[in-house]
């Protein structure tokens, strides 16, 4: 029988990930009644960070073996440059792993440089893993097609060394492109949507939809203020924020949210939750904060949007909680279409706000008149 010590490090990491996941389920099932809500919230986020890191450990071992161990037998292995390379790879992996913990300790009005560096490394890490496995699969396919009888030689060694070099180069290029893209203002997509039963007095109604802003370790007040200016320049009749506004607790990041108070759409600004709101475990406080900025959360509920030209012309704007609330068993939350549409007349147009496309699909299957 194989003991735990004899297991390969990847298997040990998988076991550790399983134990962390089990502890998450245990704490939600048995410790919920014994801990105050704030402690529960912090513990869950810590467990999620540990779970992600134990899963990443397997990928990090592959990265180290591919980019460092592969070259230890080369003539350059004893050089000063190779030592610097090992330090660089180690720091890169350490920063990638630390990114999840910045959500717990490094959130403020504006992003910290460390958080930006950590999440940049996390993005590059994912790209690098993809290319290492893709190029590795291509290499294995080549060996299979070349035949089992082929002898190992200089060509094989060169291909083995070329794989990590090519993967790193591609990762650097795509990371730079990604950073340049992230530094640009958000793209405004203009879409015309025909709405059945919409009153003629509300034709050409302009709605600005915002999603996935993710205030937190990498997005702060400056970026949000820029987005708000862009929204105001569009002069919408209605503004809707459809989830993933933040990755942090409301109290911690409140100063960064202040630009939302400048939204002044004449027919109102509305909000529905995304999955990341539930990851913060702070949805109630987020609702209160948004209300203080005159933004109305639609928590499985609806409002009548009345035409400024005729009080008898209106449509029903409804919003549902994100489906992740059901997965996390978040008390008092979860997608409830019937509740969200309660009071909406089928004789009037109905517009539904939901964070995930799958939720919209489910809603249309149940209520094709939306």
Automatic annotation (TrEMBL):
Superkingdom of origin: Eukaryota
Pfam families (alphabetical): Metallophos
UniProt entry keywords in alphabetical sequence: Membrane, Transmembrane, Transmembrane helix
Record domain Calcineurin-like phosphoesterase: where: 205-359
InterPro entries membership: Calcineurin-like_PHP, Metallo-depent_PP-like, Metallophosphoesterase_sf
One Gene Ontology molecular-function label: hydrolase activity
Membrane-spanning ranges: 12-30, 42-64, 84-106, 112-135, 161-180
PANTHER family: TRANSMEMBRANE PROTEIN WITH METALLOPHOSPHOESTERASE DOMAIN, TRANSMEMBRANE PROTEIN WITH METALLOPHOSPHOESTERASE DOMAIN-RELATED
Protein name stated in the entry: TMPPE metallophosphoesterase
Source organism (scientific name): Certhia familiaris
């Amino acid at each position: 029988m194989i003991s735990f010590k004899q297991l390969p490090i990847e298997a040990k990491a998988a076991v550790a990930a399983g134990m962390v996941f089990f502890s998450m389920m245990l704490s939600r099932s048995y410790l919920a009644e014994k801990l105050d809500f704030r402690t529960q919230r912090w513990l869950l986020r810590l467990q999620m960070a540990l779970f992600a890191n134990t899963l990443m450990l397997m990928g990090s071992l592959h990265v180290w073996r591919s980019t460092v161990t592969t070259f230890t037998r080369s003539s350059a292995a004893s050089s000063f440059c190779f030592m610097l390379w090992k330090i660089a790879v180690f720091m890169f992996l350490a920063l990638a792993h630390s990114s999840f913990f910045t959500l717990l300790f490094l959130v403020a009005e504006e992003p910290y440089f460390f958080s930006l560096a950590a999440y940049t490394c996390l993005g590059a890490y994912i790209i690098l893993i993809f290319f290492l496995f893709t190029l590795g699969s291509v290499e294995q396919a080549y060996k299979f097609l070349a035949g089992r009888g082929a002898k190992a030689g200089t060509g094989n060694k060169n291909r083995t060394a070329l794989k990590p070099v090519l993967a790193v180069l591609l990762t650097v290029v795509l990371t730079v492109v990604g950073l340049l893209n992230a530094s640009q203002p958000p793209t405004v997509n203009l879409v015309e949507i025909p709405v059945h039963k919409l009153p003629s007095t509300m034709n050409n109604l302009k709605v600005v939809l915002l999603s996935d802003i993710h205030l937190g370790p990498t997005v702060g007040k400056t970026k949000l203020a820029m987005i708000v200016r862009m929204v105001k320049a569009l002069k919408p009749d209605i503004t809707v924020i459809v989830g993933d506004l933040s990755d942090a607790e409301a109290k911690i990041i409140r100063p960064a949210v202040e630009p939302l108070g400048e939204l002044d759409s004449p027919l109102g600004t509305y909000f529905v939750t995304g999955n990341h709101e539930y990851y913060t475990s702070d949805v109630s406080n987020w609702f209160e904060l948004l209300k203080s900025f005159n933004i109305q959360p639609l928590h499985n509920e609806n409002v009548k949007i009345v035409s400024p030209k005729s009080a008898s012309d209106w449509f029903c704007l409804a919003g549902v909680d994100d489906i992740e609330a059901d997965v996390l068993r978040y008390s008092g939350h979860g997608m409830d279409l019937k509740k969200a549409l309660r009071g909406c007349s089928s004789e009037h147009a109905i517009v539904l706000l939901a964070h995930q496309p799958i939720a919209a699909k489910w809603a249309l299957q149940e209520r094709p008149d939306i």
